[in-house]
Amino acid sequence: MSAAIDRTLAALADPVRRRAVELLGQRPRSAGELAAALDLAPPAMSRHLRALKEGGLVEDGHPHFDARVRIYSLKQGATGELKRWLAETEAMWTHQLGAFKRHVEGGE
């Protein structure tokens, strides 16, 4: 497993961060909006957003009208490597369980 997948899974390990990803999947939001929606203090939300950025899941930008505000959004294609790894893992388990079933049923 690659370091990028490790970082992504570590970022998603926390339920608050998973909920933030769900909210960002609906639309981009400011840190303040996310904090209010998740009932978190702003410093706590900042720590969660930092973890999501380090995990490669979100990115931030500034609206053209106010450079002081950061708007967070899901990073395009951020889960591609994780999806590939999950598909490969699922295929391996499907093969292994199929072989085990054939063995138990006396087919091997």
Report on this model:
This is Metalloregulator ArsR/SmtB family transcription factor. InterPro entries: ArsR-like_HTH, HTH_ArsR_DNA-bd_dom, WH-like_DNA-bd_sf, WH_DNA-bd_sf. It holds the Pfam family HTH_20. It comes from Sphingopyxis soli. Residues 1-94 form the HTH arsR-type domain. With 108 residues, this protein is mainly alpha-helical. It has a domain at 3-76: Winged helix-like DNA-binding domain superfamily/Winged helix DNA-binding domain (Arc Repressor Mutant, subunit A, Orthogonal Bundle), CATH 1.10.10.10. It has 5 helices and 3 strands, in the order H-H-E-H-H-E-E-H. The chain has helices at residues 3-12, 15-26, 31-38, 42-54, 80-104, and strands at residues 29-30, 58-61, 71-74. The protein has a 3-stranded antiparallel beta sheet with strand order 1-3-2. Helix 1 (3-12) runs antiparallel to helix 4 (42-54), helix 2 (15-26) packs across helix 4 (42-54) and helix 3 crosses helix 4. The two termini are 31 Å apart.
| SSE ordering | HHEHHEEH
CATH homologous group name of the domain at 3-76: Winged helix-like DNA-binding domain superfamily/Winged helix DNA-binding domain
Give the radius of gyration: 19 Å
Q: Hey, roughly how much beta strand do the residues contain?
A: 5-15%
The main pleated sheet reads as: 3 strands, antiparallel
Name the strands of the widest sheet in spatial order.
1-3-2
Query: Which percent bin holds the helix content?
Result: 55-70%
User: First CA to last CA: what distance?
Assistant: 31 Å
How many distinct beta strands?
A: 3
What is the CATH-assigned architecture of the domain at 3-76? Orthogonal Bundle
Indicate the structural class. Answer: mainly alpha
Give the class-level CATH name of the domain at 3-76.
Mainly Alpha
The low-confidence parts are: none
* Overall pLDDT confidence: 89
Note the total helix count: 5
General form: elongated
| CATH fold annotation of the domain at 3-76 | Arc Repressor Mutant, subunit A
Domain HTH arsR-type: 1-94
Organism: Sphingopyxis soli
InterPro entries: ArsR-like_HTH, HTH_ArsR_DNA-bd_dom, WH-like_DNA-bd_sf, WH_DNA-bd_sf
Protein name: Metalloregulator ArsR/SmtB family transcription factor
